[in-house]
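#struct-help
A.M.: can someone run this one for me? Single chain, 233 residues.
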Amino acid sequence: MEAYSRRIRYHLLGEACEKLGARYLAAGHTADDQAETVLLRILRGAGLRGAAGIPFTRPLTPSVSVVRPLLACSRKAILSYLAEVGQEYRRDETNNDLGFRRNLIRHEWLPKLETVFPDASDALRRLAEQCRETQAVIESLAEELLALCELSCSKSGFSLAVGPLNEADEPLARETLRLAWREAGLGEQGMTRRWWCELALQGRQRDERPITLPGGYKASVEGNRLIVSAGSG
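D.P.: on it. Structure tokens below:
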């Protein structure tokens, strides 16, 4: 329910920004939200990208970006400031519902961690920053590798040369394939680490037999090119 509501909320906000001609949408995420997000994603088994936490900015629509100017400020500092200037604010009553994992982390797990590790939240935020920096380097290398792979996108998928891909280390090959997938505008739902590994292995083995990927996509190698396309059903 939370994820669905979030998608609808950002969709409506994006439409409002487009209508008003606004280039930026400022969200109120705090440093505490960042620590909670990182811990939640780690427990879910996230990789570097997930452990990087909430980004300071991201595209919302082709002409609107979400920015988070309070991401380095603690929730306590913000509430203290609001009290000082006499500014009212709203509380979402669902934030107290322990049926949601994030609320469990916020109200129970993280406070308990901080009784043993007082700087647990700061440590999680530092981890997020380090993951962001490392992920940025990997993505930069992936962009360079993708340029060598002669990516070709179509309405149903993409193809690229496997030669340069196979000369790279597997983690970089996976990141390059993820970048190609996004360039082609394909949905990533269900594409877990296991499937990125399967896709990279398909290119390395040069097996002409197609494999089926989440979302109904198929991947096969023809000649020296890896082809990913929507399945025929």
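A.M.: thanks! Strands lie at 24-26, 57-61, 64-67, 152-153, 157-161, 211-213, 217-222, 225-230.
D.P.: also worth noting: The chain has a mean pLDDT of 92.
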